[in-house]
Amino acid sequence: xxxxxxxxxxxxxxxxxxxxxxxxxxxxxxxxxxxxxxxxxxxxxxxxxxxxxxxxxxxxxxxxxxxxxxxxxxxxxxxxxxxxxxxxxxxxxxxxxxxxxxxxxxxxxxxxxxxxxxxxxxxxxxxxxxxxxxxxxxxxxxxxxxxxxxxxxxxxxxxxxxxxxxxxxxxxxxxxxxxxxxxxxxxxxxxxxxxxxxxxxxxxxxxxxxxxxxxxxxxxxxxxxxxxxxxxxxxxxxxxxxxxxxxxxxxxxxxxxxxxxxxxxxxxxxxxxxxxxxxxxxxxxxxxxxxxxxxxxxxxxxxxxxxxxxxxxxxxxxxxxxxxxxxxxxxxxxxxxxxxxxxxxxxxxxxxxxxxxxxxxxxxxxxxxxxxxxxxxxxxxxxxxxxxxxxxxxxxxxxxxxxxxxxxxxxxxxxxxxxxxxxxxxxxxxxxxxxxxxxxxxxxxxxxxxxxxxxxxxxxxxxxxxxxxxxxxxxxxxxxxxxxxxxxx
Length: 489
Known about the structure:
The structure is a single chain. Helices cover about 50% and strands about 10% of the residues. It has about 500 residues and is mainly alpha-helical. The termini are far apart. The model has no long low-confidence stretch (mean pLDDT about 95).
């Protein structure tokens, strides 16, 4: 009988959630949702020196920001808790005791210096450099006496000698074979009694009834060891799926040298959660080989491990920014207005009260920026002129816009034309300003560039006529007259 799907994401809180970990979480989550299974979040915090509650908080916050929800785990609970490895020590002790009692684990008293010497000697002979199983042959009574005497020791597993190669069917890579004679009797528990990664992970996956382990292929070398532990415990071995690495544009593993690597860094950089989720999902998986914009719902309805690529994915920041721009453009004016408010507030431009009192104004503003930005961080600089009492004109922009004397003189005519409008609408503003260069015999581009710089302070801005409409008659005319005075100074 097929077991109900249970998958887990088990980050270590020694830092923030990085891009590779986020993709692993997304695949586990999508697979669970597609199969009607359970997605478990487990915090592997056995590295006491580097694990912090702050990092745990960052990980939880990043996952939620991406839109991922878990069925069991921190702040949720569940029947298979606790969900922090640091709180599961009793389960590791019980499992180790089982292996000791069944004769499948033994104490090793070799010091670090002795082990290093053994490895060096083996390498010099060109032989196997793993542990030579010296303590495996110790009589049980002698081992017990040394333990009673307080001799430092670790616990190693008895890997079957002369057994079959370790073979498993990876859901992404197909059949993988590890030579049995290439594995030593690895450590299960350290001298202080703490479990090693390969032991604690197996106990957790066993006790949590994990059916599929979906993770990066940097864990591939751990898999045969973990299979040995599963089998020694009499536990059912889960199906493994190892994801290829994410590389930078230079073909090397993605790291800090390629720029931001944490989820929160992209959040703070103005990337939308749905865009990042979409982009990361496509770093190794595809819907049909052609579709680029994939919503969370589409992902969870169609995800399958058969469509996961075996080759490394290339992280392309420009493509992520393009995709983010698509999501921005697809928002309704209300959606974008609400999403950009925190960015405007952070820049000190707007408040929630202002949004509520001028809601219609913000709904008119939103479409003006949606076509011109790729990141949410670009919005405040683009529209800041609308919130300022005055406007600071850059010297470079002023030099270019006000170099033509005809354009400067036309600023006065433009201000008069706007001041005399009966209706303050985008259409009437456009008609009034287009009439100015025609009446003065100058090129429209010359005037519009000068007006744009006078009103917005920049050569680049949202659509001119709409910007003037949103800025208002009084402020627009005041800026035009101030620019004229400055240019004719």
